[in-house]
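Risk register update: the risk of archive-format incompatibility is retired. Evidence:
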Amino acid sequence: MAASGNYIVESDIDNWETSVAHTEDILPAAVNITTNVLTVVHDIATCTEIKMTSTEELPAPLEDSTVYYAIRIAATQIKLAMTPVLAAAGTAIDLTSIGSGVHTVDIGSGESETKRQEIIDRIEAMIELITKDLFYSKDFILYYNGSGKNRIDLNLNPDILTITEIQISGVVLPESWYAYDKNSIYLDPSNADDDISNLAELLLRLKTKALFPLGMNNIKITGTYGWTSCPSAIKKAAVILCSYENDSTLYTAYENLSSDSLGDHSYNRGDRKFLTGIHEADRLLLPYIRRKIILGSH
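Archived output:
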């Protein structure tokens, strides 16, 4: 599985330094001793390091776990050379047998998917730290002190998307008793319809002076917050930052920028601790910066 984050995936970045290291299995039938060609699954570049092992015998004269170098013939065809220089020159090892069992081809010179995942995760965490927001939907469970009022301001950042359950001292509050907006939960008498069977509940709610009675951590609220979909500017900023990490010549480092402005916002080098340090990414992120912190959730 390719590396993936909440905003971007590995394929969004087109300048990873080398191919991902991996292994694949081939059968003896994939070895052609007339042409010295191995038919493989992945497209392997010339001079890529290759090691081979087998459940029985490798094609002769290949040796177990010895480093060889690929000569790319086609998208799924390679030959093997003894050195990078010979691989570049197209001088292949002469294969004299196809071997037996299952052969494992270890393309070991590339990056790991773990490394790519670490980069994506680190960049997305930086964006969330700077913007004080989550650009995806995330579950939360929070406990509040009952205020003795009919409204609780959650003061969440990012905004509430859904409230799935409210408990008051362990008792689940019926959904018809409350409504919510992006910041708060409140008693809403208008939720009840005019069915006569709901009249008793409606009267009770109208008389309720404190939907959320006084108490310490007696209100448990479960729901989701964040964004229903990630803005394109956030995705683009994440791509820029990952690409910059792979090649620092692609974008403008903040240290080389004396000042900048965007609409009503302006910032200078003294503000860089709040930004990414990359001019092109900063301009995309600046309109999304909030002031409140993201509260703990799970």
